[in-house]
Structure formats: C-alpha cells, structure tokens
Amino acid sequence: MVTWRLLQAFGLPFTLLAVSAVLDFGYHDAVLLEHFLKRMHVMHPTITHLYSIGRSTGDVELWVLVIGKNPWNHTIGIPEVKYVANIHGNEAVGREVVLHFIEYLLEGYGQNEELTQLIDSMRLHLLPSMNPDGFSKAYSPDCNGVNGRNNQNGKDLNRNFPDPFAPWDGFPEAETKAVMRWIKSEWFVLSVSLHGGALVASYPYDNRSPGGMQDFNYVWGQCMEVTLEVSCCKYPEGDKLKDFWDENRPALQAFLHKAHLGVKGLVLDRDGGAVVGANVLVSDRNNLLPFNTTEHGEYFRLLLPGQYNFTIMAPGFKPLTQTILLSEPRNFSATRQDFILEYNGKEKGEARCASWCERNG
Ligand SMILES: [Zn+2]
C-alpha cells in the first residue's frame, strides 16, 4: 500500500489513483484493509456495497464488501454467497487472498466474460477478516503457532457457535454474534471459510469439538459452507503471498459456479402470494432442520444433477410432492422451479399467518 499512502501524502488526484496499481503482495493491517475496501467501493460504485456486520471485541469494524449486479439488496433468483477469512487471527493467507480476489473480480468486470457473468449472477459478500484483533497480535513468520488464533477474549471463534451435537455455553463473542445475525439475515446459499495450517477441504458436519461456524451455517443458515485450509504455513513471510494467490485463485473462482447447482424458485399460493416458512424437503436428503422458504417465499437447494422427489409443506396448505429432473447449471443459473400450493380448506389469511407465525413465534 505504499503507492496509496504516497499519493495521499502528495494530495494527488483520484484519477491518478484509479489507474495506479492497487494492492501489493504483503500483509495489510486493519487500517490498510479498510482503506483498500473503501477505495474498491469508490472505484466500482455500481457493483459494490460496503457495510459492517458489527465490531470486534477490540472495537474494530468487521467490514464486508459485496460484489454483484445489484449489490445493495437481495434480488429474487440471485444466490447470496459469502467468502469469510481470518476467523483464526494468525491464519493470515486467506485474509490477503480475499483482498486480491476482490481486486481481481472488480478489475475483470466488463473485461472478462466469465467474471462478468459470475458477478451479474450472484451477490458475493466478502469478509476478509472475522478476527482482526487476533490478527493484530499474530506475527510473521509463524507457521505452527497459536499466537493470535483466538479473539481478544481468548476465545476460539470457530468453537463459539451453537452446535447441534454438543452442549453450548450460550455466550457467543461479539464477532460470533455478528456473524450469526448476518447468516440469519441474508439467507446465504454457499460459503467458504478460509483457514491455514494444512491443506484441507472439510464440509458439514465437522463436530469434532463444539461450535464450528460451518455446521452453524448448514443447520441454522441453510447454507453449505466449506472450510478450506489453504496453506501449510499459517502466517508465512509476505514475499510468499504471490505464490499462494496464484495457487488459490482458480479454485476460488471455480467454486463460485457451485452457487448455481441444483434448483431455486418460489413457493406461492394460488393467488401468487409468497408462502413464507414452507418446508422444501428432498427425499434422501435429510437435514437436521428442514430447509424453509424465506420471507419472499423463496428457496435454493444445492443439488448435483439427477432426479429428485420434492415435498413442499406449509401449515394451512396441502402437501405437494413433485419429481424434478436437474441438469448441470446453465447460463450461470440453477434450474428454476416454482411450486404452487393449494389451501387445506382454510381461509387464505389463516393459512398465511399459520406458516409465518409457526416459524417466528
Ligand atoms: Zn483455522
């Protein structure tokens, strides 16, 4: 970020900034990270949105940059996707890789066909650091240490979520609370959590010890989160970052396509009204909690190509069972399938309320 700081110091105009190289290969502390995200937003105002999901225990903003054709709001049919890094503060490669991925996507928009289509077909939320306080305590090089792993209160944030298989102490840290709120509010479909210290990809369930973020996403957020450990060394020297970026960039890009696996659509009543909180069940794909439609009556189910039996259930409506044949994603979209439910002999208002009230108390 030397370029950025020098240009600021000399008061050079923004037009010059816009054409200069942006992100160097080195580590960026909380101040530089915030500058970078704000600058990316200023340079790409129509396809980015910058917001904070809360503050860390040490009072640092947890910044999220959204990239998408409509970055401000959810659009029906457009999957919400997130990339989260640095939940363990000393696992620093993911943090920098996410920053470079942001720059890469934004520079590619309108230039590269695949990147443009990806950005136009999803709303991608990127949280480069979930544990900025831990990162500020960690140091490089440190391949195997634990200094900075936990948050400022000494808590491992990836063991701090409710766990469906183990008792929970019920005391989420500020960072955990912020992410839980975020997951409940955005209805993410697909997620990556970037770690370091090994080369591993793990998927739900990972309850080897209580409270992983990945299982929380899957059970309570209806979101498939994959945990990726992307470097054997947790916090390598900065001059190794270019290699890690080159090694991981294709996979991070390819993974975005998986947001378009399977099927998506709306569950509606016969008048076209959204049925909120309807169960969208797939036979042989049992979940601990059923997948429900959102406040828009919308659902997404990530599924490989094949034939599936769907059952849609909501209080006040007759259950609907339908067989659906799913192909590979086409044109950067999952298969679209809406379901129309018939009332179960009750009045319309009663049926709608039943479905909403059961879910929301
Ligand atoms: Zn980790």
From TrEMBL:
<dbReference type="InterPro" id="IPR008969">
    <property type="entry name" value="CarboxyPept-like_regulatory"/>
</dbReference>
<keyword id="KW-0862">Zinc</keyword>
<keyword id="KW-0482">Metalloprotease</keyword>
<keyword id="KW-0645">Protease</keyword>
<dbReference type="GO" id="GO:0006518">
    <property type="term" value="P:peptide metabolic process"/>
</dbReference>
<feature type="active site" description="Proton donor/acceptor">
    <location>
        <position position="229"/>
    </location>
</feature>
<keyword id="KW-0325">Glycoprotein</keyword>
<dbReference type="InterPro" id="IPR057246">
    <property type="entry name" value="CARBOXYPEPT_ZN_1"/>
</dbReference>
<dbReference type="GO" id="GO:0016485">
    <property type="term" value="P:protein processing"/>
</dbReference>
<protein>
    <submittedName>
        <fullName>Carboxypeptidase M</fullName>
    </submittedName>
</protein>
<keyword id="KW-0378">Hydrolase</keyword>
<dbReference type="InterPro" id="IPR000834">
    <property type="entry name" value="Peptidase_M14"/>
</dbReference>
<dbReference type="GO" id="GO:0004181">
    <property type="term" value="F:metallocarboxypeptidase activity"/>
</dbReference>
<dbReference type="GO" id="GO:0008270">
    <property type="term" value="F:zinc ion binding"/>
</dbReference>
<dbReference type="Pfam" id="PF00246">
    <property type="entry name" value="Peptidase_M14"/>
</dbReference>
<dbReference type="InterPro" id="IPR050753">
    <property type="entry name" value="Peptidase_M14_domain"/>
</dbReference>
<keyword id="KW-0121">Carboxypeptidase</keyword>
<comment type="similarity">
    <text>Belongs to the peptidase M14 family.</text>
</comment>
<feature type="domain" description="Peptidase M14">
    <location>
        <begin position="26"/>
        <end position="259"/>
    </location>
</feature>
<dbReference type="InterPro" id="IPR057247">
    <property type="entry name" value="CARBOXYPEPT_ZN_2"/>
</dbReference>
<dbReference type="Pfam" id="PF13620">
    <property type="entry name" value="CarboxypepD_reg"/>
</dbReference>
<keyword id="KW-0479">Metal-binding</keyword>
<dbReference type="GO" id="GO:0005615">
    <property type="term" value="C:extracellular space"/>
</dbReference>
